[in-house]
Amino acid sequence: MGKMRKKVAIIGGGYTALSCANRLVKKGFDVTIFEKTDSLGGIAKCIECNGTKIEKHYRHIFKSDKYVINLLEELDLINKLKWPETKMAYYSKNGLYAFGTPFTLLKYRPLSFIEKIIFGFSVVKLKLIKDYKKIEKYTAEEWMIKNCGEKIYKKIWEPLLITKFGDNKDKVSMAWLWGKINLRSTSGTLEGERLGYLDGSYDVLTEKLIQELNLNGCKIELNQKVEEVKKDNAEYTIKTTDKIINHFDYVVNTVPYDSAKYILRNVLTDDENRKMDNLKYTSAKTLLIYSKKSLSNFYWTNIGDRDIPFGGIIEHTNMIDKSNYNDNYIIYISNYMYKDDRLFSLNAEELFDEYYPYLSQINKEFKKEDVLKLEVYEELYAQPIITTNYSEKMIGIKLEEDGLYLGTMAQIYPEDRGMNYAIKIGTEIAENIINRNIK
Ligand SMILES: Cc1cc2nc3c(=O)[nH]c(=O)nc-3n(C[C@H](O)[C@H](O)[C@H](O)COP(=O)(O)OP(=O)(O)OC[C@H]3O[C@@H](n4cnc5c(N)ncnc54)[C@H](O)[C@@H]3O)c2cc1C
After folding, report:
1. Can you give the residue range of the structural domain that contains 274?
2. Which residue among 46, 225, 255, 335 is best mutated to probe the pocket of ligand 1, counting the most ligand atoms within 8 A of its Cβ?
3. Are residues 310 and 247 both part of a single domain?
4. Alpha-carbon span 360 to 362, nearest angstrom
5. Is residue 169, in this structure, part of any structural domain at all?
6. Which of 1, 59, 192, 235 is deepest in the core (most CB within 10 A)?
7. Per residue in 20-50, pLDDT tens?
């Protein structure tokens, strides 16, 4: 592009931003990433766990995550992607059961024989639906009750919806659940599930992306919280907590709506503002347990007992060998909630005290003395609540103001948000900007 190098400002430094910047700098654009914290990676950031990097929140890759896989190939990291066998379980009031394959369904005691058949048929019916628009007008609750009856809904689906959306469980669109089930089933086999994991954690990919960005002249502004975007004479100005930078041709916002609404207040239309106001998110609080003892044989356990105050147990060392973590068992306790929930304000020890009676109910051998260390990580904007007919309510990647782009979890639909789709949206925005500049 020679002297005509176009300037792009990217707000936020998570995977949408990194993948967008990676594409743009390689095509000669002058890109600046503004990230409010002191490092890049966003929700996918990793921590040191007994000498090995690990994700703050559990993390795996599905077979259908082709954008992640393509990026790993592009960056020569595909040999780091491993596909260990992972077992899934469901904990209901009657106990812990293997779940997720036709064989385990047959052995699943909380459902009667007839219920198992109805459940199996409803999942097959769902997988045969190719066009989400046919079901987006139904709530997940309506569709499930209609197709498998109230009893099965209450035993299987309702606890899962409550786990993620709490009191808003009856507002969630069937298109969201359809996307979620389809995604998960791409990694299933008749014997069980195989999920992908990056040897050395997602940090390996983040570090490589940063290396590529630096090599290609991307400017990375850390500890720079963006406060305002203004447009004057077809050029954008970015104001952060302590600087003002001018002359951007394009701005890509990747931060969630609550902040985006404020940052973009000068440039959003009334309709965009209203749509942003209407979208709500759930938050997430993940407890990380380093333990001397294993909790179960399963990698992923969904909690279907409504008396238990958390939604899932992810025993990471049932996917990746514990020898990587100094022989500690690494267990994540996943919990989605709202930021005003009492549990959201608790520290790691307090949260563990709340959870312990239920962990020992699930495995009587699991004792407090087995716990070596506890850590807690939280995300305020963990999951948008996708309501019915979302295709009519969502804002696309291009905002009305020319040159302004939006790439957040709210642009991902009908699939459930995830790393693959962060990379997809980041790449799509970059392609759009590149195509506008092809003479
Ligand atoms: C508990 C949990 C578990 C998950 N597990 C998986 C999984 O196993 N597999 C999977 O594929 N996906 C998983 N996901 C989803 C995945 O992590 C996200 O979809 C993805 O990381 C989102 O990336 P992003 O770039 O859109 O946003 P983010 O990662 O949220 O990045 C946004 C960035 O913007 C920065 N920022 C915010 N405000 C400002 C501002 N004013 N100025 C400058 N910077 C700002 C933030 O600090 C952050 O770095 C999980 C999510 C959660 C919450």
Report:
1. 7-59+201-279+388-436
2. 255
3. no
4. 5
5. yes
6. 59
7. 999 999 999 999 999 999 999 999 999 999 9
